[in-house]
Design a protein that fits this description.
heterodimer, A: about 280 residues, mainly alpha, 17 helices, B: mainly alpha, disordered C terminus
């Protein structure tokens, strides 16, 4: 009750300031007048003075040791910076960034196939879907299951598995560049659509015929090859891309690529997450 | 370069890379800085760390010292070091509780000017009660009242050190004393002498 009075109506701050001789002169008169008529505040002032003198009577403890600085302390880097950038933190960050960069490269190589693919698809959706139905049913199934993963991984999967004429076009384009792996794609598309991937390496020898001249391939899938061949020529100047698409056009290559991408993403996320944990520990030390 | 050299002369030398000059300043103020840290943090080991940190960062930012009171400037840095430690404790409450509990076991050293044995015995309980009461204050109030009553700074200096208005300083000190008074009155039997004594003074 008494405390409540003091909190609500009485000039508590002024009383405390007066005890220190810090009350502004223009308020001093008013406070004295209040104190003269208020027993509670006189008691309050007494008790505040008691607290104040008790505080001032607190012993000053001697310093437990000398705090003089040594040259080493002076040359030391500011602690917040060094504590944050612990070697473990830096290592984890770099690892995370490294895996993320590798992931980006893999995805780009993978997506390179998509760019080719969508390019041909935009000019002839019909042809691509036709390719789907013309190819081996078993392979088509594989293609659609793969395609259900993600768009990025699914598109090349569809091309590699069941849409062989299109990948043949890719190979044909790459085949125009001095004969290398692009040759694998060429015969793949033009002659071996029915059983695709298994026979692909064995047909290397045909690359010169089929790969170089996409329009001249046998008529079963000739129209498809023509379209895909255009597409292939557009991207042909990149031999590396030819190699990449050749890689992705293999069935096993696609699924392991997916595994690699997911694995890389997981490792990158784990490493960056670990770096945050490390920094939090370092900061709180 | 000795204990009679004014602060500003020592600072001028220290700025030119004279570490010995700075260390004269350290020796001059280390007791005050350590006691501020001890009152703010409540136990010796963290206070020691904060005091050392304060002197290191004062040396590092010596070029930013402008003008008036080196002591006030230094104590502001020390207060910041204490706030850093208090923040760390809040981020890691379990550990800090362990640490505080452990170090409170260590006896606080007796004062320099040793009073008689009887006086010391009579005051020991009051001091212990005051230290406990101080530890229960909000950080801002504790700093204000320690700077005022333990270190003897004026309101204007405290306002500058804490970067708040004079009115805020006045109110923080008043609230701190009021809380301390309530806490101490709860254990009135501990300090009848002190209360009675001051009542007689009026």
């Amino acid at each position: 009750m008494r405390l409540l009075d003091i909190f609500s109506r009485h000039p508590r701050d002024d009383i405390s300031a007066r005890a220190d001789g810090e009350l502004a002169s223009e308020r001093r008169g008013a406070l004295e007048a209040h104190l003269a008529g208020c027993e509670l505040c006189r008691a309050e002032l007494d008790e505040l003075l008691a607290v104040r003198s008790a505080l001032r009577g607190l012993p000053q403890v001697a310093a437990p040791r000398s705090f003089t600085l040594t040259q080493a302390m002076v040359e030391r880097k500011p602690p917040p910076v060094t504590s944050r950038a612990t070697p473990a933190f830096v290592a984890m960050r770099l690892a995370g960034a490294g895996f993320a960069a590798v992931l980006a490269v893999v995805v780009m190589l993978d997506a390179g196939g998509i760019v080719d693919d969508t390019g041909s698809r935009s000019s002839s959706d019909e042809a691509t879907s036709l390719g789907f139905f013309e190819s081996d049913p078993a392979n088509r199934d594989a293609g659609t299951t793969d395609g259900s993963f993600t768009e990025a991984a699914g598109a090349p999967a569809a091309r590699g598995d069941s849409d062989l004429p299109v990948s043949g076009g890719d190979g044909g384009g790459a085949g125009a560049v001095p004969n290398n792996s692009g040759g694998i794609g060429g015969p793949d598309g033009s002659e071996d659509a029915p059983d695709g991937d298994d026979a692909a390496p064995a047909l290397n020898g045909l690359s010169d015929d089929g790969g170089r001249e996409p329009p001249g391939v046998p008529s079963t899938s000739g129209d498809l090859n023509e379209i895909a061949g255009d597409d292939g020529e557009a991207t042909a100047p990149e031999p590396g891309e030819g190699a990449a698409t050749a890689f992705t056009s293999e069935d096993d290559g696609v699924s392991s690529l997916l595994v690699i991408e997911i694995g890389l993403a997981a490792i990158a996320v784990l490493a960056i997450g670990a770096s945050f944990v490390i920094r939090r520990r370092a900061d709180s030390d | 370069m000795d204990n009679d050299t004014p602060d500003l002369d020592l600072i001028a030398h220290a700025r030119q890379g004279d570490l010995a000059a700075f260390n004269v300043l350290v020796e001059r103020y280390q007791k005050g800085v350590y006691n501020l840290c001890l009152r703010m943090l409540g136990s010796p080991a963290p206070a020691e760390d904060a005091a050392q940190e304060a002197f290191i960062s004062a040396h590092r930012s010596l070029d930013r010292f402008r003008g008036q009171s080196f002591r006030a400037w230094l104590f502001r840095i020390a207060a910041n070091a204490c706030y850093n430690e208090l923040r760390r404790r809040k981020a890691r409450p379990a550990t800090s509780l362990d640490r505080t509990g452990y170090e409170d076991e260590r006896p606080i050293e007796p004062p320099d000017a040793a009073p008689s044995m009887e006086e010391r015995a009579a005051n020991a309980e009051l001091h212990r009660a005051l230290e406990d009461a101080l530890a229960r204050l909000p950080d801002d109030q504790r700093l204000a009242v320690v700077l005022c009553d333990v270190q003897g700074f004026g309101y204007a200096e405290i306002a500058e050190m804490m970067r708040v208005s004079l009115g805020t300083v006045k109110s923080r000190i008043s609230r701190a004393r009021s809380r301390l008074r309530v806490i101490l009155l709860e254990q009135r039997e501990l300090l009848p002498g002190s209360i009675r004594q001051s009542s007689e003074e009026q």
